[in-house]
Specification:
Structural class: mainly alpha
Number of strands: 0
Distance between the termini: 25 Å
Strand content: under 5%
Shape: globular
Number of domains: 1
Order of helices and strands: HHHHHHHHHHHHHHH
Radius of gyration: 20 Å
Oligomer: single chain
Number of helices: 15
Helix content: over 70%
């Protein structure tokens, strides 16, 4: 299979996710909580318009009427909201490199959670990659102490991996699911926002008009890569999608290191080296296993 529209959609979606730090850096005068709340609000409104256009608004009612799906998506709403807020916070305090570390870890965390919760088998060849990743995190903790432990990286990775696990079990479309999740978080977010020193409308007096216009695009910027990813996921092999997925944390790393000039300590360099080695091992093992299965299928009578 040659280069297709699905390949392009996947590359663009992962690139947009990887370049997100640049977007959030446009608002240094806005607190992370306010940015998160605006992202949630504009995402919900954008998704509402999309579902209205596709005549799928009834899907929200369908989700609500199913108790199991409803509670699963309430849990996933808390996880994705926590992930969004922590990611924006990481960008605002100059921890883009640590955020990228979390997303580099994500494929390995996914494998581990699949084994732990879904009882999926971890192949013998995959264990070295997981052990290398655990060693990387332990190394930072041992060398830097509890104060400099990569809590942001680990929390981002765990919240996103657990979110993905719940969404895998929920069997709900990506757009409908995210619309329901943002709907569930709108009211508690506005209640918390009410008790914050800043009010929802205060931001409009704090930043110029062009930044207000840019911030209102947060919904489109959130939903566009999701739509492109959904298009690609239906048409590309899982292995191809997973390989292209490394583009997002790579671009986050580039943003932190080369664009915003964040410092890389020796401990972080060692940890990144171990994580990258783990990913190379994991990818190589996956490709070899895929090749082996293909050969076995071709040998079947």
């Amino acid at each position: 299979m040659g280069f297709t529209a699905a390949h392009l959609a996947a590359i663009v979606s992962y690139s947009l996710w990887g370049l997100f730090p640049i977007y959030w850096k446009f608002f240094p005068e806005v607190k992370p909580w306010d940015l998160f709340a605006h992202r949630l609000l504009w995402s919900f409104l954008t998704l509402l318009l999309i579902l209205t256009y596709k005549k799928q608004l009834a899907s929200l009612r369908t989700i609500w009427k199913n108790p199991k799906t409803r509670f699963m998506l309430m849990a996933s709403a808390i996880l994705i909201s926590s992930n969004w807020l922590l990611y924006i916070y990481a960008v605002s305090i100059g921890q883009i490199l640590e955020a990228s570390m979390g997303y580099f870890l994500n494929p390995l965390i996914n494998v581990f959670l699949g084994w732990l919760i879904l009882k999926e088998k971890i192949r013998i060849g995959q264990w070295p990659a997981i052990i290398l990743a655990i060693t990387a995190i332990a190394l930072i903790g041992f060398q830097s102490g509890i104060q400099h432990f990569p809590w942001i990286a680990l929390t981002l990775s765990l919240t996103f991996a657990t979110y993905g696990l719940i969404r895998k079990l929920a069997h709900v479309g990506s757009l409908e699911g995210l619309a329901f999740e943002t709907l569930m978080m709108i009211i508690p977010t506005f209640i918390i926002w009410h008790f914050q020193p800043s009010r929802p409308l205060d931001i409009f007096s704090q930043i110029p008009t062009w930044k207000i216009s840019l911030l209102s695009l947060a919904g489109i910027i959130t939903c566009a890569p999701l739509i492109l990813f959904a298009f690609a996921a239906r048409r590309l092999p899982f292995g191809t999608l997973g390989f292209l997925g490394y583009l997002s944390p790579i671009l986050k790393f580039v943003c932190g290191w080369l664009i915003f000039h964040e410092t890389l300590s020796s401990e972080r360099i060692q940890a990144f080296a171990l994580i990258w080695l783990a990913l190379v091992w994991y990818t190589g093992e996956s490709l070899l296993n895929h090749k082996k299965l293909r050969i076995q299928r071709n040998q079947l009578p």
